[in-house]
Amino acid sequence: MDTNVKTNKKRGLKSIFALCPRRHIVLLSALAVIGLYYMLRVNSTAMNFLCDNLVYPYHRTAARIFGILPFSVMELIYTAIGIFAIIMIVRCGILIVRTDSRYKHLYRTVISLACVGTTFFAAYCLLWSTTYYADNFSKKSGIEALPVSAEELEVVTAFFIDIANEYAPQVKRDSNGVFMRTKTSCLIRQ
């Protein structure tokens, strides 16, 4: 047997896909959602359908679930993603130094970070940006914003001031005159 015969390494898309198939599927799915979003955003009917059947119900549900927390869940997610990225980069550097399969580890790290980034951007496109291309309140309600004079604004403002002053004595206040109810007690109807 000839010792000079080199073993052929698998090359091509199949071998690259085999390195981390789940990550590739996530990445391709996120890219497909982003591509679909960019194709459909010119179609207000599709954007209205997405908003009415996915986005607004999601927003209501998320508000109910996360509204009780005293901190921003998105800030927590941003922080977790930043920490994840730092850990992945440090881990990749260690693996590159310690192992022979440097390019494999580098590729997996890059794909992992790309998965997180594109998935996050796909979620942003789908769950927030669709509202920019759906019908606005004016179009849905049929109420148009017309020019208003400063005098008309003054009359309306005075009207609301009078109503606020009329009902102000009914508001429970502490000894300093500050509104007594807590945020959670306002959420419960009495």
Task: Name a few traits of the molecule.
mainly alpha; 190 residues; 8 helices; elongated
Commentary on this structure:
- The protein has helices spanning 13-19, 21-40, 44-66, 73-98, 102-133, 137-141, 150-167, 183-187.
- With 190 residues, it is an all-alpha fold.
- The chain has 2 domains: 13-137, no CATH class; 150-187, no CATH class.
- Helix 2 (21-40) packs parallel to helix 5, helix 3 crosses helix 5 and helix 4 (73-98) runs antiparallel to helix 5.
- Counting copies of identical and different chains, the oligomeric state is single chain
Tally of structural domains: 2
Supply the number of helical segments.
Answer: 8
What is the CA-atom radius of gyration, in angstroms?
28 Å
What distance lies between the first and last C-alpha atoms, to the nearest angstrom?
89 Å
Number of strands: 0
